Please model this.
Amino acid sequence: VVMTQSPLSLPVTLGQSASISCMSSRSLVHSDGNTYLDWFHQRPGQSPRRLIYKVSNRDSGAPDRISGSGSGTDFTLKISRVEAEDVGIYYCMQGTESPPTFGQGTKVEIK
Amino acid sequence: QVQLVESGGGVVQPGGSLRLSCAASGFTFDNYGMHWVRLAPGKGLEWVAFIRFDGSNDQYAASVKGRFTVTRDNSKNTLYLQMNSLRADDTAVYYCAKTYVLLSIDVWGQGTTVTVSS
Model:
């Protein structure tokens, strides 16, 4: 499954919102009924950290400004009221089919 | 808390070998599949290998198949990646990662750096 993110670069103004799109080449609905599409954030020099699992479930350590949505082949990560700590690279990843695959990554920076 | 600590990275010449380890703690290791994922300079995350919770099945990216082998020792709560015939394009930070269900990842280690250079 090919995962395609857009945009690849996203300059944002502090306090504004940002959206990242992730599209898959095939439906990510698993035979068990779940959709295994997750979002990760990687800051420079750090390991990735999961923000969202199964499309729209926010991790306990993720700010409530972060939300995920979508279905089938089309998914979105939204960051409301961008803060300085949000800079870094965001990746979507599908775990529905083997091999697991990542999007190319979206680099978020502050204008 | 869940912790994954990689080790074994370093500088190796092309054609050489290296063995990475990932020590796991804070969870029941033998209940979960595990991945190796790498981040090459200037590139995005690339899945490398996966091994089932009981070691009965392993899978590899086409770029490493036949050169890398993933194993685990559930008695030691440790994951391994044996890397042979290393090439310059294997240069990357290598992360071990825990699954939470099937192939999906929830926790990552801090990474270990592998540099393949003469």
